[in-house]
Amino acid sequence: MANEPKLKVGVIGTGVLGKFHTNLYRTAPHADLVGIYDADPKVAADAAKQFNVQAFQDLDELVDRCEALTVAVPATLHYATVMPLLQKGKHVLVEKPIDSEVGHAREMVRLADEKGLVLAVGHVERFNPAMDFLEKNRSNTLFIEAHRLAKYPPPRPGHLRRGTEVSVVIDLMIHDLDLVLTMVGQEIEKFDAVGVPILSNTEDIANVRIKFVNGAVANITASRISAAPMRKFRVFQTDSYISMDYSNSTGVIYRKGFLGVGKKDIKCTNTNALADEINNFVDAVIATKAAGKLVPPKVTGEQGLRALELADAICREIHDYNSKYGLYKFKK
Fold first, then answer.
1. Is the peptide bond before 41 cis (omega within 30 degrees of 0)?
2. What range defines the domain where residue 211 resides?
3. What span, in angstroms and rounded, lies between the C-alpha atoms of 131 and 179?
4. Which tens digits make up the pLDDT trace of 112-142?
């Protein structure tokens, strides 16, 4: 692969996440960053200067010169941005969630499948070394408890605060929904969800309790109005208890043995999860081109859709409950 031409890539949307993608594409071993685009020319120009890359004023010009692109625009704009790229035969890495609407996400997945294109979704926690450890030690999971807490996003002149265009369920909790679905690997029997808006027009804090058909249970909390951040994932199994801190890829495992319960500290290899995600996407596209058939990335469009479908169902239950009891009137 070292002697083969590099994949020509571009970045659409150069906000906080788009800048991370731009910077990492510059050093990705098998990628050639053609340029960037943002609907705000000043934002694009600032990013271009920061990373010494060309900012395109015409989106179509950038797209035509690329084989694959990252889309890092607000979730409500994913469908309008991604669909034309797929129609032009471009491979896409779209930031999570795959979209803000399930129907749109289904169309994106269908079109990518029809055209044999890589559609990767940026569920970056799947590349966290802590998740690698959990996936390798997921035998007979009985109960999962996940907490993902963040401070309220800072203001953005002329725009909603980052992520608040959607519920915290779709903005933050969807990470853990994806992880839980991956860990348990079973159909959902039922769930019960609650959530309320505090500072925005959408839910800022939410909790869901999910029961699976095999008896496993997951209790997940997400907040974007917390004083201190937290990203913890606890797994209870038939013979062990695993506690992982995603923020620093450390944890502890207690395992039942012949002589009692043993404790072992966990320190995962410190890697850049977003860099791994980008390299996985680039490698999947290169492999797809070489094979003449789709080689899926680690997080596929179908998996992104699966997580969004669950998040959307949770949001609808929260809205119905709050409407029934007059707790708030959700603003569409």
1. no
2. 127-270+316-324
3. 8
4. 999 999 999 999 989 988 777 777 777 788 9
Task: Give 267's strand partners.
Answer: 250
φ/ψ (deg, to 5) at 329: -105, 110
- Residues whose CB is less than 8 angstroms from the CB of residue 105 and which lie 6 or more positions away in sequence, other chains included: 79, 97, 98, 99, 301, 304, 305, 308
- pTM: predicted TM-score of the whole model, two decimal places: 0.91
Mind listing the pLDDT tens digit for each residue in 8-59? Answer: 999 999 999 999 999 999 999 999 999 999 999 999 999 999 999 999 999 9
Q: Distance between CA atoms of 123 and 182, rounded to whole angstroms?
A: 12
* Residues 6+ positions from 206 with CB-CB distance below 8 Å: 167, 168, 169, 173, 193, 194, 195, 196, 221, 222, 223, 314, 318
- Which string of b and e fits 299-309 if b means at least 16 CB within 10 Å? bbbbbbbbbbe
**104, 183: one domain:** no
Same domain, 96 and 14: yes
Q: What is the mean pLDDT of the chain?
A: 91
Residues 314-329: tens digit of each pLDDT = 999 999 988 888 776 5
The answer to whether residues 242 and 282 belong to one domain is no
